[in-house]
Design goal:
elongated, single chain, 434 Repressor (Amino-terminal Domain), mainly alpha, 54% helix
Length: 125
């Protein structure tokens, strides 16, 4: 996800880590496990703290109980799910370049309409 947000190819990431892009693919797909030293290298190359890779870890896996008020809403998709999709990342980047707030609001309303959601303040129409 972070690699895509940076616009970095698997090949470029591999070069910076001394790996082939096929090895990077295997890490991303979960075929190969990532050791601690490799995780440290990834964090350095992607300019994130190591904790970045654990942000969305479930409480069951991490052994830590969720804090009251911070429980996940099971009906809502995670941001991580959104940005892990290439189309979503491209959509986000393009949307962020729109400077007119009215145009941005119109796009949000249009997408909600296409998705079958009723935009706030529309009265259900």
């Amino acid at each position: 996800m972070r690699r895509m947000l940076l616009g970095m190819s698997q090949e470029r990431l591999g070069e910076q880590l001394g790996l082939t892009f096929q090895q990077v693919q295997k890490y991303e797909k979960g075929v190969n496990r990532i050791g601690a030293s490799r995780l440290f290298d990834l964090a350095q190359v992607l300019s994130v703290p190591i904790q970045y890779f654990y942000e969305n870890m479930s409480a069951a896996v991490s052994g830590i109980a969720a804090a009251p008020g911070f429980a996940d809403n099971a009906g809502e998709p995670y941001v991580a799910d959104f940005v892990s999709n290439r189309d979503s990342v491209e959509l986000h980047k393009a949307f962020a370049r729109i400077t007119d707030p009215r145009v941005r609001r119109s796009i949000v309303d249009m997408v909600r309409s296409i998705a079958g959601d009723v935009p706030p303040g529309s009265g259900g129409q």
